[in-house]
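Reviewer 2 asked us to include a model.

Predict the structure of this chain.
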Amino acid sequence: MTRWLTPDEQRAWRSFLTATQLLNAQLDRELQRDSGIPHAYYEILVRLSEAPDRVLRMSELAQAAESSRSRLSHAVARLEDAGWVRRESCPTDRRGSFARLTDDGFAALDAAAPAHVESVRRHLIDRLSPTQIAQLEQISEAVVAGLRADGDVGPEPAPSGRAGRAVADGGYRDALDEACPEAPEAG
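Predicted model (structure tokens):
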């Protein structure tokens, strides 16, 4: 039996749907206008900038960016063409590969971040009270946790550092060796 939405639930759902669609479209328009970067590509650059040595296994990057592997592969190819990301093979797993944020990619992200953060602030954060911001976080976390528990989305990405800032210490080759398993990657 279908559990139809009540009028209050229907209004909340429609309001949420419209708000998220309009906000995502606005942020994407502004990022493209100001930096020439689609929002999905910006998110990939951010995830790489937050990773140790600015490198992630492609499967981990897809998970962190909430993207399918094929969609991520296409995006990384475009970012490679721009010189912002470089793919590197895994020395112990011929099927595995890594994405590495280049210095040019980090510079592009660093240049785009201030305007993007201001857009997020202007279009979302500044419109809410501190209580509403806390509620938005709680609501979002509840929805994400429920979807993950239902198996409808991938597992939770590994925790990351400050948005848009890379870990700048050395040891890149050590990170590759630690992240690259001896056995071929499944799936």
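The two ends are 36 Å apart (CA to CA). The first helix runs from residue 7 to 35. We have added this to the supplementary material.
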